[in-house]
From TrEMBL:
<dbReference type="InterPro" id="IPR050515">
    <property type="entry name" value="Beta-lactam/transpept"/>
</dbReference>
<feature type="domain" description="Penicillin-binding protein dimerisation">
    <location>
        <begin position="87"/>
        <end position="223"/>
    </location>
</feature>
<dbReference type="Pfam" id="PF00905">
    <property type="entry name" value="Transpeptidase"/>
</dbReference>
<dbReference type="GO" id="GO:0004180">
    <property type="term" value="F:carboxypeptidase activity"/>
</dbReference>
<keyword id="KW-0645">Protease</keyword>
<dbReference type="InterPro" id="IPR036138">
    <property type="entry name" value="PBP_dimer_sf"/>
</dbReference>
<keyword id="KW-0121">Carboxypeptidase</keyword>
<protein>
    <submittedName>
        <fullName>Penicillin-binding protein 2</fullName>
    </submittedName>
</protein>
<dbReference type="InterPro" id="IPR001460">
    <property type="entry name" value="PCN-bd_Tpept"/>
</dbReference>
<dbReference type="InterPro" id="IPR012338">
    <property type="entry name" value="Beta-lactam/transpept-like"/>
</dbReference>
<keyword id="KW-0378">Hydrolase</keyword>
<feature type="transmembrane region" description="Helical">
    <location>
        <begin position="49"/>
        <end position="69"/>
    </location>
</feature>
<dbReference type="GO" id="GO:0008658">
    <property type="term" value="F:penicillin binding"/>
</dbReference>
<dbReference type="GO" id="GO:0071555">
    <property type="term" value="P:cell wall organization"/>
</dbReference>
<feature type="domain" description="Penicillin-binding protein transpeptidase">
    <location>
        <begin position="262"/>
        <end position="551"/>
    </location>
</feature>
<keyword id="KW-1133">Transmembrane helix</keyword>
<keyword id="KW-0472">Membrane</keyword>
């Protein structure tokens, strides 16, 4: 605003020239200025009154609306809210393929102390040790009688333990709300579920996070509040998992093995119906990882996906299948097996003397190392590597648990002709039992690779074709003969026509070389052999039994009987009825009468 001077020079000079009083001009300008200031002050006052009126109107409207809502609502008891409860998000459940609970949430409490508020710290410490025997009494007493203002005692306690602490009656012992992960089936499917722990936490709440298995692999899904009502559904069948664990545990003890694993897989969908690794653990009380020694001795070690082994003669069927698929041989082709087969300073020998020659079919039935190596020579190292790559043998399996990424196959540094020969009978390439299950599934389903999955599928999931349907059928016929006439004779299960291949590989030493008296025994099977629905792989670590007065370690004496018992137990649970094996139709030539 431009302010007009009270005594403008032009008007003053004019007034003096006309004989007028200049002071009158100043008074008139001063009066005009006062009038303008008064008008501005009035406008400001009226604006403030308007704003204040609108504020009071809104306040009365809100109060009236709230009173109306309270008058029309149902009366409820007031509840208190914890300031830290925002970090405790509901975690989605995990269920099996039939919707049965594998992991869920459980409301519990934590226990902590304010030492300054304790009436009798020594008596409270003694009572707490009586309730929680794992507490260190000297350390607890020192914490409760020291200068600390806050002491964690237990991150989670049961309702019975809470009542026992409450009965101590000391006001310095306090409880905080907790949500913990509960595995109602104990150690069942422990390596798949993995376990959960606490992330961010305070006295009022704790964040539950996955630490292993599917809990860790699908942590973001399980923690998403939007999925709270949508459980994570796995491909596992709880009933079959329990039966498989029971049989494998008994077999491991009977065979004096230090560890064992089994995998049951649907050959069309890739669903893993059961996967067992022993020894196992209870995810409700997950043990700490080993800090020294061999990590494979820990119960946390998942032998199905982390255990990378040379799986022995189970690989021979891949060499035979590839050779037939390439048109190099047929099932009846004769192969020279005179030995030993020498390559430089190395010699390849058979377990028994099988004569001078065998057909490709009998090479698999008799499990001839020399015969399989001859097939590998015809295939060549490059083509062999490409075939095994298409079977998924050269990369970690896509199985959806966090430990699967650690199961990276051990490849030869130089994939030479010698490497191709030894790999053909299962030495020189180390893979996991899960790799082997996926490879056998490709033979069982007619030649398509299918990725193993822990998630329930609604339809078949065929992958790329790795062999022709005719080759897969010929390979299945060979595997059936291995059970009826070959090294897996103990694997026959009446009514379920099992086909499979044994594999016994010397166990490597951590420092290099192989043990003379320790093996990895494996039986990879499929059933029913004429129309396979499932693949079952059983692997025993360092088995040894006495049979017919001799010590036996081979898979035919150890892994095969365990697998047969498991198939007999779980096949009815899978809905498979015993049936008579279809006979081969004799060729008939029609002639005129």
């Amino acid at each position: 605003m431009i302010r007009i001077p009270l005594r403008p020079l032009a008007r003053i000079l004019t007034a003096r020239a006309n004989g007028e009083n200049p002071d009158a001009i100043e008074k008139e300008n001063l009066r005009q200025r006062h009038f303008e200031i008064q008008g501005q002050s009035q406008q400001r006052s009226e604006g403030r009154l308007l704003v204040l009126g609108v504020f009071f109107l809104c306040a009365y409207a809100v109060i009236g609306l709230r009173m109306g809502m309270m008058a029309t609502s149902e009366p409820t008891e007031p509840t208190t809210s914890a300031s830290g409860s925002a970090i405790a998000a509901q975690r989605a459940d995990i269920v099996d393929r039939e919707g049965r609970i594998l992991a869920t949430n459980f409301e519990t409490h934590s226990l902590y102390a304010h030492p300054q508020k304790l009436i009798d710290a020594a008596a409270s410490a003694a009572a707490l040790v009586g309730i929680f025997p794992d507490l260190d009494s000297e350390r607890l007493l020192k914490d409760l009688t020291g200068k600390r203002k806050f002491v964690w005692i237990k991150k989670k306690i049961s309702p019975e333990q809470k009542q026992a602490v409450h009965d101590i009656g000391d006001p310095g012992l306090l409880f905080g709300p907790r949500e913990m992960r509960l595995y109602p089936n104990g150690s069942l499917a422990a390596h798949v579920l993995g376990g959960a722990g606490f992330g961010k936490e305070d006295v009022d709440a704790a964040e539950v996070i996955g630490v292993a298995g599917v809990e860790r692999q699908f942590d973001s899904y399980l923690r998403d509040p939007a999925n709270g009502a949508e459980p994570l559904q796995l491909s596992l069948d709880l009933t079959i998992q329990a039966a498989a664990e029971q049989v494998l545990s008994g077999g491991m003890r009977l065979m004096n093995a230090k560890g064992a694993t089994s995998i049951l897989m649907d050959v069309h969908t890739g669903e893993v119906i059961s996967v067992v690794s022993l020894p196992d653990f209870d995810p409700n009380q997950r043990p700490r990882p080993l800090v020294s020694g061999d990590s494979s001795d820990s119960p946390l070690f998942n032998r199905a996906v982390q255990g990378v082994y040379e799986l022995g003669s189970t690989f021979k069927i891949f060499a035979a299948a590839q050779a037939m698929d390439l048109g190099l041989v047929t099932a009846d082709s004769i192969v020279d097996i005179r030995g030993p087969l020498r390559w430089g300073r190395f010699a390849i020998r058979d377990f028994h003397n099988y004569g001078n020659s065998l057909s490709v079919e009998r090479i698999i039935v008799k499990s001839s190392n020399i015969g399989t190596a001859r097939l590998a020579q015809q295939i060549g190292a490059e083509r062999q590597r490409d075939f095994l790559s298409r079977l998924g043998m050269l990369e970690p399996t896509p199985f959806e648990i966090s430990e699967a990424a650690a199961g990276r196959p051990l490849l030869p540094p130089n994939w030479s002709e010698l490497s191709a020969m030894t790999i053909s009978y299962g030495h020189g390439l180390s893979t996991s039992p899960m790799h082997l299950a996926a490879g056998y599934a490709a033979i069982a389903n007619g030649g398509n690779y299918v990725s193993p999955t822990i998630l329930k599928q609604n339809r078949p999931q065929p992958g790329p074709r790795v062999m022709s349907a005719e080759t897969a059928a010929a390979a299945r016929n060979m595997l059936r003969l291995v059970v009826t006439e070959g090294t897996a004779s103990f694997g026959e299960v009446p009514g379920y026509q099992v086909g499979g291949k044994t594999g016994t590989a010397d166990k490597p030493k951590p420092t290099g070389g192989y043990y003379d008296d320790k093996v990895i025994a494996t039986f990879a099977s499929m059933f029913p052999a004429h129309d396979p629905k499932y693949v079952l792989v059983v692997t025993l670590d360092e088995p040894s039994i006495i049979a017919y007065g001799e010590e036996r370690r081979t898979a035919g004496w150890t892994a095969v009987p365990v697998a047969a018992e498991m198939i007999g137990r779980i096949a009815p649970l899978l809905g498979l009825r015993p049936q008579v094996e279809p006979a081969t139709v004799t060729g008939i030539t029609l002639t005129s009468n």
